[in-house]
Amino acid sequence: MAYFDHQRPDLTLAEIAERSGMNKTTVYRLLNTLVMAGWLARGDGNSYRPTMRVFQIGSVALASTTLPAEAKPLLRELAEDFGDTAYLMVPSGRHAVCIDAVTGDSPVTVNAVAIGSSLPLHAAAGPVTMLAFVPGLLEEELAHHDREPFTPGTVTEAEDLRALVARVRDQGYAVSEGDFLGNVAAVAAPIFGPDGTCIGTISLGGTVDRIRGERSEAILEAVRGAAGRLTSRLQGR
């Protein structure tokens, strides 16, 4: 897998043989094994590319080591500054998993989302941010047609989801409002690893009046700043 990178996510059999120093027959057998195991997928022109399984394993490994420790002070800072709940999420299959959260002093908290919660990718700011910035994740999600409408504001149709994700990519962040839980809003920004791949999100969530009110610009700036600082701490880009 070390032969693939963000600049060359697809490689041909000949290129892999050249990079590995092995003969083409041996490489072909190994590649077929990895395809059958679900680690690689065949592309156009006899090329191969890593599947989401590789990324998911990497995310789990990173989530269990440096990511939570580096993110903790930034989550605390967001929660203390605004009084709402700051979240750290990573992708896992068709879901975003909350691996850490810090609750501020607001008398109203979002109890439905806590450490260990698993959210669908098509709703809420953190998961939608993953759809926008994790390579291949949007197409994988669109291959399914069973997206649940949690509220009247949930985006479930493929074209609507594509448009939403395109907007998030263009902005560099996501803002959700009542699409997963009624009267709950959030702002999320992507965290990038050393290879430039999005490995998770940092977000701030609370009631709509608190997140989307007069503090909205300050919250957006703080969340994006926290995600940028966390990316730097992880030597990401």
| Total discrete domains | 2
CATH overall fold name of the largest domain: Beta-Lactamase
Order of helices and strands, N to C?
A: EHHEEHHEEEHHHEEEHH
> Which percent band covers the strand fraction?
15-25%
Counting DSSP H or I runs of 4 or more residues, the number of helices is 9
Please name the fourth-level CATH homologous superfamily of the largest domain. GAF domain
Shape: elongated
* E-strand count: 9
> What would CATH call the class of the largest domain?
Alpha Beta
Fold blueprint:
Blueprint: E1 11-12, H1 13-20, H2 24-37, E2 40-42, E3 47-50, H3 52-63, H4 66-82, E4 85-92, E5 95-103, E6 118-120, H5 125-133, H6 137-142, H7 158-171, E7 174-177, E8 184-192, E9 198-207, H8 208-211, H9 216-233
Antiparallel strand pairs: 1-3, 2-3, 4-5, 4-9, 5-6, 7-8, 8-9
